[in-house]
């Protein structure tokens, strides 16, 4: 049985095709579990109808919700007829990302699946503001789905950070690998590969320090990363040919390697930075995400606390 058993699928109200729901059905057929098809909706015009009483407005909102429930049932009809356990829930909420995260908190969902738009020319994924909020703030893993079938015998490429000495990066690396191995063991013999990037020799140091040896520096940095990668692969019994230590920026190396391996999914960890730290320091995970052309699984470290407040009981 997979670690992901209580799936929440964020339904896209703008189209009939629901790749995230299709991927969720695929996963539970392989792993077991249950699905909630979830849709937050809001129409400001219903709130502005001052001529109606609060009861009438509530009735109008409920009619819209009921209509959307029936629409989702129709989209999921083949799965429902086949006995796939899908719970359908539509709520009235003006902040979709907040509604999704509060639903995760209240019902202990362990995986959110959401469709990502695809750029037709570049094949990269396009993320909406709602997507970014969910990726940064959702306490459980978030799977962004591209509209294509899961590849038979595909690859899960896990991006690990071996450049930082911070203890939370080491524990996050191990969490990424263990969850990816657990997931892959249930999904069509998916292979797990590890990738890390190490920085190239700084040009300014080579210029400013006459005795600086760029080649020796590069060899030392590579050696450190190879040793760290060896320790990880041995701990999780991953073959050496499935680990990749490459020179360059993570923003370039990870998308390139995922394309080379024709990966079905890239697994990456993020601290979920928000606010000024994200704006000025930047977030490597988000830079990588901008260039991914396959499915993406984003996992937070243990102890992550979402900035979104739980739903207030009515």
Helical segment count? 12
Oligomer state of the chains in this structure: single chain
Order of helices and strands: EHEHHHEHEEEHEEHEHHEHEHHE
Task: Please summarize the sheet with the most strands.
Answer: 10 strands, mixed
- CA radius of gyration is 22 Å
Query: Averaging pLDDT over every residue, what do you get?
Result: 85
Helix content, binned percent:
40-55%
Number of DSSP strand runs: 12
Low-confidence stretches: 275-282
What is the overall shape? elongated
Strand content: 15-25%
Structural class: alpha/beta
Distance between the termini: 35 Å
With strands numbered from the N-terminus, the spatial order across the biggest sheet is: 3-2-1-4-7-12-11-8-9-10
């Amino acid at each position: 049985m997979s670690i992901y058993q209580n799936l929440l699928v964020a339904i896209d109200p703008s189209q009939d095709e629901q790749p995230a729901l299709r991927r969720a059905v695929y996963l539970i057929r392989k792993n077991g579990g249950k699905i909630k098809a979830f849709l937050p909706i809001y129409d400001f015009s219903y709130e502005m109808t001052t001529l109606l009483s609060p009861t009438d407005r509530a009735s109008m909102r409920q009619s819209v919700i009921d209509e959307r429930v029936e629409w989702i049932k129709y989209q999921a009809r083949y799965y429902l007829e086949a006995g796939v356990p899908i719970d359908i829930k539509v709520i009235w909420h003006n902040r979709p990302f907040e509604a999704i995260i509060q639903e995760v908190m209240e019902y202990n969902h362990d995986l959110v699946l959401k469709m990502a738009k695809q750029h037709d020319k570049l094949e990269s994924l396009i993320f909406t503001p709602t997507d970014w909020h969910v990726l940064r703030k959702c306490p459980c893993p978030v799977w962004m789905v591209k509209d294509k079938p899961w590849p038979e015998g595909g690859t899960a490429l896990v991006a690990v950070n071996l450049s930082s000495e911070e203890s939370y990066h080491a524990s996050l690396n191990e969490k990424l690998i263990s969850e990816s191995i657990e997931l892959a063991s249930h999904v069509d013999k998916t292979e797990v590969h590890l990738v890390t990037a190490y920085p190239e020799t700084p040009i300014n140091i080579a210029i400013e320090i006459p005795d600086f040896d760029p080649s020796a520096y590069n060899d030392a940095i590579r050696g450190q990363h190879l040793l760290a990668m060896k320790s990880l692969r041995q701990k999780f019994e991953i073959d050496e040919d499935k680990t990749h230590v490459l020179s360059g920026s993570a923003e370039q190396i990870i998308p390139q390697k995922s394309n080379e391996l024709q990966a079905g999914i890239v697994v990456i960890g993020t601290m979920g930075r928000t606010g000024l730290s994200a704006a000025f320091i930047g977030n490597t995970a988000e830079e990588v995400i901008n260039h991914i052309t396959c499915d993406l699984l984003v996992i937070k470290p243990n102890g992550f606390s979402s900035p979104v407040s739980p739903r207030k009981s009515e």
